[in-house]
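Translate sequence into C-alpha cells.
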Amino acid sequence: MANIGDTAPAFTLKNTEKKDVSLSDYSGQTVILAFYPGAFTGVCDKEMCAFQDNLGKLNDAKATVLGISVDSPWVNTEFTRKYGLEFTLLSDLDREVVTAYDATFVGLGGIEGYVSANRVVIVIDGNGIVQHRWVAENPGVEPDYEAIVSFASSL
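Result follows.
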C-alpha cells in the first residue's frame, strides 16, 4: 500500500501508443496518479475531464497527471480522443499497480469478481514520496479537484 510518507511503488505500464511509461520517467517532478474504474463510465468521464480542465493550473504547478485504469491501450486511446485529454492514460492490464497502491475495486457494475481500479488520487513529490492519498468511498464519488490542484501547487 502507498501511504502518506511512503516511497511510491515503482511501475511501468503501457500508454495509449503501447509504449512503456515508468514512474521513474518523472523523477524530480510532482506526479498525480488518478486511478479510475473504467473509461466511458459516466463518473470516470467527468473525472478525467475535470483533470483536463485543471491541466493548465497543474502544469503551472509543475505537476504531471497520469490516469491509470485496467482498460486496454485501445480503449484508453478512444477515451483520450473523445475527450481531448492531453495527459497520459496508462493500462494496468495485470492489475499489479492498482494492487500495489491499494486502489482496487471488486464488483464494478455488479460484475462479481471483476477487479478494476477504484477512484483513488495519489500525489507524489519530486523525491518519489507519497504526499497525498484520497480514496473514494465508492466509485461514484469524485475527488475535490480544487483541493488536489491546491495541494499539488503547494509542493
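Note: The first strand starts at residue 12 and ends at 14.
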